[in-house]
Structure formats: C-alpha cells, structure tokens
Amino acid sequence: MIGLGTYAFFWQHSDQVPQPLSLVGAFEATKGLDVDLFQICDYAPLEGMDDHELADAAAAARDLGLTIELGTKGVEPDRLSRYLDLAGRFDARLVRSMLYSAENRPTLTQAEEWLRAALPAYEASGIDLALETYEQVATADLVGLIDRIGSPRLGVCLDPANVVARLERPRDCVELSAPLVKNVHVKDFAFARQPGWVGFTYGGAPMGEGLHDYPHLLQTVRPRERGINEVVEHWLSWQGDAETTIRTEREWTRTTIEYLRSNS
C-alpha cells in the first residue's frame, strides 16, 4: 500500500508557515490524494496529546478510512511500550523506530537487551517493530542485530537514502536488508555542487529525478508482493518563503505518488 508520512508534510506542519497543518489536516490531505495509509512518524505533538485528543485523532483516521502506522526514535523499553499503547489506540499494525534517540545511544549489546525486553508484548499484540536503516549504524550491524534476536515481529524500515552519509551504497543497503524489510520510506536524493564549486550538498530531489534506483528496490524487496507498505517522505530544503516551500512540498508529494503508481 502507498502511504504518506508526516515527513511529506514537514514544512506544512512547521511553525515557519503562517498556518501550520494539524495532524487531522494531514489525514484529510492524504485522503484527498486518494491515499489510504498515513504514518505518524517523529511527530512530537503526538506524545503530548491527552486521552481525549488521541481518541479524536484516531476517530478522524477511522472516519476517513485511513490505515495508521506510527514512528518514533529509540528502543528503550518504556518508549516502545508507550508506542505499543499508542498503536492500539490507532489500530496501527506497525511501529517504526531507530536504535538511537535524543536521550540514548545504546551499544548494540544494550539495544539487543532492550529489544528482547520489549518484543514479547509486540509479538502478543501482532504488531511489527521496524528499525530504520540510517547513517549512525551500519546496515550490516542492524541486520545482524535483527537476525540474532530472531523475532517474527522485528524487521527493517528500509530507507537507503540515509546510509550514504556513512559511505554505504544505497543498492548494497537494499540488498542486505531485503529479507527483513517490513516498511519502506520512499524519497529520491541527489548531490549538487555548492556555489563556487567547493564541495557538494546532499539532499532531496523530485522522485524519479535523483539517484535512487527505485526499480532495483522494487525488484529486490518486492514490497507489493509481500504486502510491505511504501511511505512517501521528502528531504526538501526551505525554498525561500512559505508559499513556495509549501507549493513545492505538495508538488513533490503528487509526483512521488504518481511515480509509485506508474512503477509496479
């Protein structure tokens, strides 16, 4: 299933725009694009919502016919327990996370202990926990950790754009993690020369115009055959003013949805 995540609404949610979009507003915009999945990922206001606000947000998603996934950072047992509870409120079947949070950077040994403590509750609830590929942990180390634990509910959230920062090739990341993938983050990426020709910047690109070999990912991971959701997000830099930035963000979202629908 194709979905949108909060990173597809990064600037629309931001306080840098005159009227930031609410979570329910993002739900409505998602449905307006004929998309039935939304991943609430690294959305700070979620953790501050009271029971009434959570119930209202979950009801809005259900009324719109949206499937919800959740995303956080960190594998501390208390955090994962909290997100398991939130998953129950939203009828979510997947929680995406990362090994590191702002508060903790565990060793692989510590992360394994925490995950082993948290996973029985996920297994009992039938909810998947997907750990994202990113630059702070080598893909081989992440895959090795997941293999050692061996839980059917633990897998990978595949985002090959992230690993370039540790000089990993995106294709290698895709191939190494493919058997364990439970979720895909979809965005294109490219290098651009800095002014004066003194180095490069690495950032987002409209889907299909950058360096991401997405057909290779589709062929290797086979997300549509395996029922793995593909969640759209962007690396879009500020475009100089709010109006241009929001317009560009929306255009990138439409472009990515069209790309995914035309590439099967």
Automatic annotation (TrEMBL):
It comes from the Bacteria. Signal peptide: none annotated. The keyword Ribonucleoprotein does not apply. Keywords: Carbohydrate metabolism. Residues 29-255 form the Xylose isomerase-like TIM barrel domain. The keyword Cell membrane does not apply. InterPro entries: IolE/XylAMocC-like, Xyl_isomerase-like_sf, Xyl_isomerase-like_TIM-brl. This is TIM barrel protein. It comes from Microbacterium jejuense.
